[in-house]
Records
---
Amino acid sequence: MNFNNKKGFTIVEVSILFVIFLIVAFLVVPLSLDNSKQEKDISRWRGVQNDFQNIIYSVNIQKSDDNFVFADAFNLVMNGEVQADIDPYKITYYNGALPDEEYKFNDFKYTNGKATVAYKIYETPQSDLYGVMMYDVNGFMGPNTWGKDVFGYNIYSDRLEPFCRQDSLQKQKQDCSRTGTGLCCSNYYLIGGNIN
């Protein structure tokens, strides 16, 4: 028996394996980091639900005032929740498109919780819908995308309701994918939907 004829890996073979491992790592690591960040942002979104219900409660306490105007009461309560005005920044839909006029905001405010909030109160309520609100859980830091770090509410006289709450689970799931707007993620993640 001749044990001296054993062959090991050559430097070229080791180098090729090393390059293959690096390529796989570069492909997998960013995806897992992106999902981890998005999970953290979703957790923040879930965590602020009670705070927002307290806002609408504070607005409704003022209804006993003879001069009650919903928009004025809402603005007053929201002013207590923010630190400062900030310059508007671009927010995109999940699919990369720019939002419709309904979901574009101009009056951005930095909250005490280091998030960004913006809202529109309609001059004339549409049925019982008084306006819309967006909440960017990590402030003006990226990705500034609906359904990733930006979520929203419909503002009613007696409640704040996440976008798409009345829509089917299938529609919410589809909208919360790479081809959707991401608006429905506002409710989809609250009811336990998974990142697609």
---
Amino acid sequence: MVYEEKKSSVYTALISVLVVLWFSNLATGPVHAVPFNGTGGFSLSTTTLDFESFSVGTAQPSNADLSISAELPSAPGVQPSSVFVRSQGFTQIAGIFEGQYYGFDGANYYIQFNGVVQEFGMGIFDPNFAGNVLIAYDAFGNELERVTSDTDPEFPTGIAGGSFSTFVGFSRATADINRIELLSVSNDVLGIDTLTYSSLESTPSVSEPGSAILFLGNLIGLQFIRRRNRPLIKSLRA
């Protein structure tokens, strides 16, 4: 009878700890990213990659902070031969799409950070159709936020003809953006420029609430096993 009461107490304690940590995670955990349009959406100091430092023809530009690649939507892993650093030769929209840029094709674009950032935005050249999607992910592959062209106000579209650009970004409460994907809808041809991001920080290994749950769960589990096997241990010592 005493053993069963102790067993019930351990289970109750474990459930209580998990519930408290779950609600704590809801209260203090990361909130959704806040999408914004325009270069004025940043609240932190930023770094800008405008592709001017790369040679024309570079297929996968990268630096110490990030790497950039593209692939065909119909053939994952295959980079289109037409996607590389290009020279535009004129300024379409100053500070958003000017000089050299990366594209220009119906491709999916990927920006992978060598860490995490709190804010990110970039110029997107000539989205004309609904359905292009810009997505932010954390280091564990969890989607933080997305915006869709011609559906969300942060991702407007222009008329066909190559005369429109927009700047779309995300702002977070903490630095946890590790990857950005721009997925192109069929028939739309996109290019990217003016990649802008806040200070790069180290990638977290495990979130704090997750660490606490694992640690306390193991601690309580070990205590339960120890109490459960106490009669056996005493008999072996006798």
---
Amino acid sequence: MKNKLPLIIGIVAIVIALIIAVVVLVMPKEETKKEINLEEVSNKITENSAFKEMATEDISTDTLKNYFQVNTENVEKVVGKVPLMNVHSSLYVIIQAKEGKANEVKEDLNEFLKGYEELWSRYLPDQYEYVQNRKFDVIGDYVYLIIAEDSGKLENIVKE
């Protein structure tokens, strides 16, 4: 019996370790929601891009509704800039959607993009290229659209 005691203790320890491992793997994981400081990100984008020199207008809820055709009932907050003149296709918008509404907001923006792409496809080739190389995605409850020469660099600011 003395010789079997270490074996039994070892088996019990392995069984306990397996039970703990299974419990940890099966337990629902608490999701950490990504929080984006919209004003801070907007300032960084503006300061680190051509938006600093460009004549733009800040995007308000009214702009979101009237220009982008986004259902503002699905929106908590919005930041961004649109050009004042139709010689630039560059714009950016970051929307904090209401919980669970980010995909609906993205669908609304996607509808806007169809017309925007059509417009620029017939106008200025260099600006149309920016539209084609846009960054458009969802992070948690946030939806962003970036159309700019350096859209990849600006997307990294949003994702920081």
---
Amino acid sequence: MDKIPSFEKDHDLLQPGLHFSTLQKSVMTLDMRCKKPNAGDFISPAALHSTEHMLATALRNGPQKEHIIYFGPMGCRTGFYLLTEGLTFREAAAALRGALGACMQMTEVPGALRRECGNYLEHDLAGAKKEIAAYLALLDELPAATWKEEDARAEAAFAAARREAKV
């Protein structure tokens, strides 16, 4: 059985940040890594759940909503996956930043009522906002070289896909 791309990465080397992961059938997957893998610091289940509801809502209602395919948590509780179509890495990063800012303005977790959520008792608005604020600070601290490297990785994948489509 082939390994999926996310399992091919050495998680001991992964650092928190926003990483280009894959481009498959025109869908770009971004790795929104909030925590260093295997370091013992994980997002609490309730904060992870609330962050998922908040960011999915903000992204799917944001200016780039027609390009958002999926947003959801990693089972390891170190981050999230954002799948987009029709956006460059930089455009997706800008959409994510805008959505993170919108989440910081939320006064309740969207979709957290019993009839809306399969685990409505496990939400933590304050915990989610704490994680979101920490992630925004992390993005602000990333060096320009990191952004250029991730953008270049994404652009190389898009260029390869365009070449393959012409064959």
